[in-house]
Amino acid sequence: MVEKVPAVEFRDVSKIYPKMKNAAVKHISFKIEKGDFCCLIGTSGSGKTTLMRMINRMNSVTKGEVLVDGKNVKSFNPVNLRRHIGYVIQNNGLMPHMTIRENIILVPKLLKWPKDKLAGEAQKLIKMAELPESYLDRYPTELSGGQQQRIGVVRALAANQNLILMDEPFGALDPITRESLQNLIQNLQVRLGKTIVFVTHDMDEALKLATKVVVLHDGQLIQVGTPDQILHHPANDYVKSLIGEERLSEAKYETVKVKNVMLTNPTKIDLGASLTDALTMMKEHRVDTLLVVDNGDHLKGYISIDDLQRNYPKASSVSDILITKLGTVGPEEYLRDNFSRIMSRNKSYIPVTDSDKKLVGIVTRASLVNVVYEKIWGDKSRLQNTSEKEAK
Amino acid sequence: MSRLSLWQQFIYYYVHNGSYVLEQFNRTFLISIYGVLFAAIIGIPVGIFISRNGHLGDFVVEIANFIQTIPSLALLSIVMIGLGLGVMTVIVTVTLYSLLPIIKNTYTGMSNVNKNVIDSGKGMGMTKLQLLYMVRLPLSMSVIIAGLKNALVIAIGITSIGSFVGAGGLGDIIIRGTNATNGSAIILAGALPTALMAILADVILNFLQKILQPKGLKKAN
């Protein structure tokens, strides 16, 4: 099998600007796989833009290597390289003296596509930007900031570029417009399978969009990981401060695992037991279903009072009315991934089994109440305050 | 003759010397145009070049400024020492004077093109030449035209003085009028077309400037 070539790879990359004492970027190595949505995040001066601009040679590399599709960028003709990498900057960078149509097809035109292909392309792209076709003949100043940036985004896709660089593209937009553009870019990325390198200082944006987050500080690489990894295992205080207190505490609840909330003494019955035993057990524990296990505690299925009642005289053993169709969760799974699954099931519980199919516990809807309770109220003191107020 | 009023004399002069005045008008016009044209051929590339090198830009504009401060008659005489009497002397002088507005405006226009636009053009893969004729020149065209306009108006003035070094033109008529007794009508016959030419040059280039202003920018203002 051919080894997968990353879309972009940094190998011990440094950038030193002349006249500057400190390197803007120091010894950075990481890979961006094809189809990744990679967010470079950091405060201003962290080197994130510098790093991104090395990919299309807008900035030169002082030391180390930057590889695009496995080849050193220095081996490419810079003009040609840039034509095959989409580029979106803040404040859109649309050509003010060209119509939207001319702006959109600028790169294909530079690549000397035939004329008839260009016309169709412009129409295809304006649809992608979710703007009316009549806008093609307008000038950029006649569009709102958000609309301009939509054009800026689709312009970067015009020549079927597989790699797109974005430098804080939504930084100058109001929150509502920004969100709609984030959705646009996320849809496009998923649908078209593009690799995107996205520079931002907004952690919300990074966590929302990225499949890979690269945290930079003072030109150094602090952490690389998925949004989940960054959120749940921030490498240091800098990353924590970028994420923010509120999101961190919220994330803490998101890391609750199934084993943290499950009840470890589910009412279970042996596969060979008689229905009489089962009925007795149900009455004792005041439940309407019983989980059925074999001698090794392996979960086999469940029986319900409904079936028992219907089949009582005919069937005698638990195995006769056993229902094997039963969803389970593992103890190491995150609760948030299964929350809605548990909630939406008709049954009021879900059994927890380990990797050997052994029954280790049960999560009931009631046990989820505690989790929601803590998430909403945070700690108990706040609840006390509230109840005191209510008492007054 | 002396019984006629000033304006009657003026009209009389035109009726009898119409084709001569027209000839001189053309001559003045062509000398000015040639001078500005040469200045544009030198000045616009220089302006483009220095817009990329900040320090050099200040230096070159300073030199052009210095040329501009020399009184025109003095410069004309200095050039005459080298080139002798004749049309060439005037054309060279006009060129020297036109350099400043042309270089300065080209330099300003080029430097004021939005950095974002240039960055995105470069990032999309434009060559330096494409960046120049697709982005930087169109976006600074109106400022450059304004420079040409200033240059042409100055040039027409200098060409009139150029008659002193034997270049001919409307200046000849004016000088003849100043030498004649009661020559007011003749002075007017030379001076009015000169003024008219300068005004027309201004109006026409203003119009041109508006036309060449990129459409997308017009609406922004």
Description:
The complex is a heterodimer of chains A (392) and B (221). With 392 residues, chain A is α/β, with parallel strands linked by helices. Chain A folds into two domains: 8-248, P-loop containing nucleotide triphosphate hydrolases (Rossmann fold), CATH 3.40.50; 259-371, CBS-domain, CATH 3.10.580.10. In chain A, 39% of the residues lie in helices and 21% in strands. Chain A has 17 helices and 15 strands. Chain A has helices at 48-55, 78-83, 100-104, 106-110, 115-128, 145-155, 175-192, 203-209, 227-232, 237-243, 245-254, 258-261, 275-285, 305-311, 335-344, 365-377, 380-391, and strands spanning 8-15, 25-32, 37-41, 63-68, 71-72, 85-89, 163-167, 195-200, 212-217, 220-225, 268-270, 289-293, 299-304, 349-353, 359-364. In chain A, the strands form four sheets. Chain A has a six-stranded mixed beta sheet with strand order 6-7-8-3-9-10, sandwiched between helices. In chain A, strands 2-1-4-5 form a four-stranded antiparallel beta sheet, covered by helices on one side. A three-stranded mixed beta sheet of chain A has the order 11-12-13. In chain A, a hairpin with a 2-residue loop joins strand 9 (212-217) and strand 10. In chain A, helix 6 packs parallel to helix 7. The model of chain A is unreliable at 380-384 and 386-392 (pLDDT under 50). Chain B is mainly α and 221 residues long. Chain B has a single domain, classed as MetI-like (MetI-like fold), CATH 1.10.3720.10. Chain B contains nine helices and no strands. Chain B has helices at residues 6-50, 54-69, 72-83, 87-111, 115-123, 128-161, 170-179, 184-212, 215-220. Chain B is elongated, with a radius of gyration of 21 Å. The model of chain B has no long low-confidence stretch (mean pLDDT 88). Chain A binds chain B through residues 56, 58, 79-84, 87, 89-99, 106-107, 110, 139-142, 152, 155, 165, and chain B through 114, 116-117, 119-127, 130, 134-135, 138-139, 214-217, 219-220.
